[in-house]
Design brief:
alpha/beta, Rossmann fold, 7 strands, 30% helix
């Protein structure tokens, strides 16, 4: 069962989707992720794509993020997220978009929305497909000094996103998952 590990709601267990449609990010990986972000999470706008239970977004909110937008299409996961919104009383700080991520990413792009922290945890068998979606929409949603983190399976290669202006800053392995951190290339890095 996923839980919030720090902040205002530390120790709160979160509802999770039933069945095997979702796999929670291990606590060790989540702790390392938020240790790397540190106090910068304060006031951030967060986008959690393929949100599952929403544990990354709820962790960010507990640690001081301003607002979180979650995109998820699985009905059981959407139900779990709605229960977690009610449990945390963060209805005013969470936007849940239930449906196909491509549609919602395109909509957010059209609206000109920007996020400081984007977390993407695609189904592990579909990371290559999602790479195409990243190249179309994610760079337009990331603020200039924002951070994109992609969770993937250890056996899969880390995504190369320099052709869309994002450079791999760091990649860390935690058990069977890998967290890859991306930021925009500095102007001086662009040839």
């Amino acid at each position: 069962m996923p839980r919030i590990i720090a902040g205002t709601h530390k120790g709160m267990n979160l509802f999770a989707p039933s069945g095997k449609t979702s796999r929670p990010t291990p606590d060790r990986a989540k702790e390392a992720l938020f240790s790397m972000i540190g106090d910068d999470i304060e006031g951030m706008r967060v986008l959690d794509v393929f949100a599952g239970s929403g544990q990354i977004a709820f962790e960010a909110l507990s640690r001081g993020a301003k607002h979180a937008t979650l995109i998820e299409r699985d009905r059981d996961a959407i139900s779990a997220i709605n229960k977690n919104i009610a449990k945390t009383h963060w209805g005013d700080r969470v936007t849940l978009m239930g449906g196909d991520c491509r549609r919602y990413l395109a909509m957010l792009k059209r609206r000109g929305e920007l996020f400081d922290f984007i977390y993407v945890d695609p189904p592990w068998g579909a990371s290559e497909v999602f790479a195409l979606q990243i190249s179309h929409d994610i760079p337009h949603l990331l603020s200039d000094d924002g951070l994109l983190v992609v969770e993937s399976e250890r056996k899969k290669p880390v995504l190369e996103l320099e052709d869309v202006g994002l450079r791999l800053v760091k990649s860390c392995q935690y058990g069977i998952c890998v967290l890859s951190f991306y930021q925009f290339l500095a102007v001086s890095d662009v040839s």
